[in-house]
Each structure stands twice: as C-alpha cells, then as structure tokens.
C-alpha cells in the first residue's frame, strides 16, 4: 500500500509540475497582451478633415438700380466627429446668418474677385461664432465657397 501511495504522490507531483510549467509558459507567452497594454506607447490618432457640402441657396443682394441675386454653394471643412449631424441640425441658423451677411453687402463688393478670400474668412468667423452661441459643438476648420454666381 505504501508503494501505491508513493506512486500516487509522484503522479500528483508530476501533474502539479506540468500544470505549473504550462501555466508559466502561457502567462509568459501572453504577457505582452496581459501586462504590456497600458505600458505600450500608442501613436496619436490623427483626425483627418472631411468636407461637408451645404445645399445651394439664393440670396437677394442690393445693387445701384435694382436688386441682384447671389447663388451660393459652399462646403465646411471640419475634423469634428459629429460634424455631419451638427451641420444638419444647424442648417437654419447657418443659412440665416449667411443671408444676413450677404444682404448687407453691395453688388459691386460681391462682384469683385479680390474680395473672395476675405468673404470666406468673414463667413468662417461669423459661422464659428453663431454655432458656438447656439451651443453647437463643432470645430470649423474652414468655410469654402464652391460656387458663387451673381446676377
């Protein structure tokens, strides 16, 4: 009986040794995933800018003898993740602000090609302020006029 007990102890010890070795091997093999995760330096995620077109609309512009009409198509450049839904929700505020801005301009001022960049900058600062005032969380990188026809 003592030899049976002795053999059982040896088998149990061998199983424990094999189990311990297998567990140590598995932990060593998985350690980069188990332990290294929080310590691994990750590259900063670069948000790429996307462009969001706005539906075209027509604005009445004062002239010397009679009113003129401005057809405006534009797009917004933004890196914000929620830009599409935010711009859709803010569409009435955006169009209203642009109508006010352009209706205060004279036809000759808008018909001058050299004013194009300054008009885009003015629209960018105006819309950034209006969106912030109305609690729309979006970062506008740029406002681009993609088409501007004055008649």
TrEMBL record:
Compartment(s) of residence: Cell inner membrane; Cell membrane
Function comment: Controls the rotational direction of flagella during chemotaxis.
Protein name: Flagellar protein FliL
Highest rank taxon of the organism: Bacteria
GO cellular component, one term: plasma membrane
Pfam families per record: FliL
Family named by the database record: Belongs to the FliL family.
Record key words, sorted: Cell inner membrane, Cell membrane, Cell projection, Chemotaxis, Cilium, Flagellar rotation, Flagellum, Membrane, Transmembrane, Transmembrane helix
Membrane topology qualifier: Single-pass membrane protein
InterPro entries: FliL
GO biological process terms, semicolon-separated: bacterial-type flagellum-dependent swarming motility; chemotaxis
């Amino acid at each position: 009986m003592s030899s049976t007990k002795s053999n059982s102890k040896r088998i149990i010890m061998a199983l424990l040794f094999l189990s311990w070795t297998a567990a140590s091997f598995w932990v060593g093999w998985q350690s980069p995933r188990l332990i290294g995760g929080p310590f691994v330096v990750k590259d900063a995620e670069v948000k790429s800018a996307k462009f969001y077109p706005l539906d075209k609309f027509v604005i009445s512009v004062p002239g010397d003898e009679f009113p003129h009409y401005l057809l405006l198509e534009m797009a917004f450049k933004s890196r914000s993740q929620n830009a599409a839904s935010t711009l859709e929700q803010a569409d009435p505020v955006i169009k209203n602000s642009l109508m006010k801005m352009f209706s205060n301009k004279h036809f000759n001022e808008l018909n001058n090609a050299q004013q194009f960049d300054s008009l885009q900058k003015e629209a960018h600062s105006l819309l950034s302020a209006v969106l912030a005032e109305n609690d729309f969380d979006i970062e506008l990188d740029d406002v681009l006029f993609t088409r501007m026809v004055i008649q």
